[in-house]
Each structure stands twice: as C-alpha cells, then as structure tokens.
Structure prediction request, 155 residues.
Amino acid sequence: MQFSAQEDIEVPIDTVFTMISDFERFERMALRRGIEVRRIADSAVPQTGTAWETEFKIRGKPRQIAIEMTEYDSPSLMRFISSSKGMNGDTVVELLALSQRRTRLRIETSLGAKTLPARLLLQSLKLGQSRFRRQFHTRLSEFARDMEERHLHGA
Prediction:
C-alpha cells in the first residue's frame, strides 16, 4: 500500500528542514498521544543511522515498531525504514525550494506485509483508503500551517 501527500509552505527550505528534523519535538508529541518512544542514538544531532523503538496500541493490541533514518541530506531529504513483527514501511520526506520563501513538502509512504495477519490489517486499511488518505492530507496541511505560524512568530 502506498500513499503520498504534499503541501506548499510559506517558509524557507532551511527553516522547514530544521523544523522537520526536530526529533525531540516529534518524540514529545508522540508521548502525549500515548506512544512510547525511545531514541537509540549517541547523538542528539539528526544523522543517518538515528533509530527509534516505539510501542503503541492498534485495535487494542500492543505493537512495536523499529524506525531507522537511512538517508539524511540537508536540506532536501530524509528517508525512514520501519519494521515490525509483520510489516515493513518506507517513508521519504522531500523538500523542494519553490522560491526563497516557499517550500514544497512531500511525504511518500509505502507499507508491505510479511505475515498473514499483517496482510489482513493492510487489506482493512485499503478498504478505508479514501478516508485514510483524506486524514493524512488534512494532518499534513495542519502541520504545514503550524510551521508557517511558528516561523511567523519566531517559535
């Protein structure tokens, strides 16, 4: 299953890249949503090889996902590979400078199943795919507007 979304943001590319590579902020956001996150790294500086272990519940069952950043090319690209007991994921975050003050943020994710239960989960996601895609686009749009506000107010 693959899905992608993009948003144009009224913020310079370097600033957008700094904001999306603020992993401590994303870790705090995940913790507030009940997702356990543990970074496995010697450095607080974002770099290829940075990895996380996460645990959360989906449909009442605890799930563990390992995530590793496999590419980090400032200010234009980050790639994350994720794996769990039954699924693999590949997420690419790309930035493109449209002008000095405008950036296009594109996120593309693909999920693949390794086990029968994971295939069933993916199949159920595919059945609700249009709703899922709409939510993904809405969240990315909200995230983009939040970055514009943070940039505008210097936060």
